[in-house]
Amino acid sequence: MLFIFLNINDDDNLRVLEFFGLKPEDCPTLRLILLEEDLVKYRPLSLDLSVSGIQKFVQDYLDGKLKVCVASWSFYIYAGYSLFTVFK
Question: What is the pTM of this model?
Answer without folding.
Answer: 0.68
